Amino acid sequence: MTNITLAQANAIIAAAFAKGAELGFKPLAIAVLDPGGHLIAFARADGTSTLRPQIAMAKAGGALGMGMSSRKIGEMALERPTFAASLGPIAPHGVVPAAGGVIVVDAAGRPIGAVGVTGDTSDNDEICALAGIAAAGLTAQG
Known about the structure:
It is a single chain. With 142 residues, the chain is an alpha+beta fold. The protein is built from five helices and five strands, in the order αββαααββαβ. Strands 2-1-4-3-5 form a five-stranded antiparallel β-sheet, sandwiched between helices. A hairpin with a 5-residue loop joins β3 (101-105) and β4. It is globular.
């Protein structure tokens, strides 16, 4: 498999929304990108703020661009703030160094896309991204 399909992207989004609703999270916005950082699918719940599409894509796109989850980018930003600050302007979707952007990999560990979730706390966003990936029968990068 080389890319997340539209059907898989929609399954990720549906399951991530369901997880957020189950846990009582704030309204979410969810983006699914292909391995090149192109948008496959996006949805946002009623009541999300206007920057949520860009934030979701920046979490997913930043993860793909750096080869690590947006959580790990956030951890790296603590140690190398100048480097991390330089990433946003050169990344097509920007970079948000906070949990919620997760790379999806194939059986060989190669990226097949990424999911970005935003709307609640970053930890909660990541919970929903991981739930969506698992529900679609896919694997999150370790």
